[in-house]
Write a structure and sequence with these properties.
alpha/beta; 7-stranded mixed β-sheet
Length: 259
């Protein structure tokens, strides 16, 4: 991936939920390298009702969420990670609606082409919390790969004139065990893809300000709403075994994912 300052980069949460949060360490690093033209995008599970009320609709499934100061309505019971992140970073977040009836691949492509707006994007990075975007569909057990694979397919349809380089980044690769995927299947898939991997970034909480900043921001954004990132952050902070963060205990009684 590039570190040159004249680049245009899209960072996109791949499979819904808090996936865009997984791109924050890279976002902070490239911003510190002087790259200002970075667009944050999330494939979103936020309801159409909330998006319609608190954001600007740009295409059939694309919405722009701007930072807001009137957030009395944004209680812990409201699921809207994009609004929380926009408020933290003070930048707009673009949300592509994941609706299992209305959202089609061509509408995701349309959303990206609206954002590209006749330019050539240097890098488009899809970030998956977990690893189901890497699955083939032939595994013995599957987690929730439909969203990730649909998003990845839409990005694949963008031409090289529209996007020069496309990447998939996965973090917390064994978290799909919590969705029933066999760890042996995950390990086999990672091994099969290892020769094509560009790099492995070992996140170090103690030695990396960008990693710590990601953890801090996530914990200010109603962390109980994301089991995936709660476990990733717990592992980064040194917890091991089947550790269950306190804020998740109202949702699940035990963790089946080994950190």
């Amino acid at each position: 991936m590039t570190s040159k300052t004249s680049k245009t980069i899209f960072l996109a949460g791949c499979g819904g939920g808090y996936d865009i949060f997984g791109g924050l360490p890279y976002y902070f690093k490239i911003k510190s390298n002087g790259i200002d033209d970075v667009t944050l995008i999330n494939y979103t599970f936020t309801t159409h009702t909330l998006l319609s009320q608190y954001s600007q609709q740009l295409t059939t499934v694309l919405f722009r969420i701007d930072p807001r100061t009137d957030i009395a309505w944004l209680t812990d019971d409201v699921y809207f990670p994009e609004q929380r992140l926009a408020n933290e970073l003070h930048v707009p977040i673009y949300a592509i609606l994941c609706d299992y009836i209305k959202t089609r691949i061509e509408l995701i492509v349309e959303a990206y082409r609206y954002l590209i707006h006749g330019r050539t994007i240097d890098e488009l990075v899809l970030i998956d919390g977990g690893s189901d975007v890497l699955l083939t569909g032939n595994e013995l057990e599957l987690g929730t790969p439909i969203e990730d694979m649909s998003h990845a397919r839409a990005v694949d349809l963008l031409s090289s004139d529209e996007v020069k380089s496309k990447y998939i980044v996965v973090i917390g690769t064994n978290l799909e065990v919590g969705h029933g995927v066999l760890k042996s299947n995950i390990d086999a898939r990672l091994t099969a893809l290892s020769s094509d991997a560009i790099f492995t970034w070992l996140w170090q909480y103690e030695d990396d300000d960008d990693i710590r900043r990601y953890v801090e921001i996530f914990h200010r954004c109603c962390p109980r709403q994301s089991i995936v990132h709660s476990l990733i952050c717990a592992a980064l902070q040194g917890h091991r075994g089947y550790y269950l963060p306190e804020h998740l205990r109202s949702r699940i009684t035990k963790s089946v994912v080994e950190l």
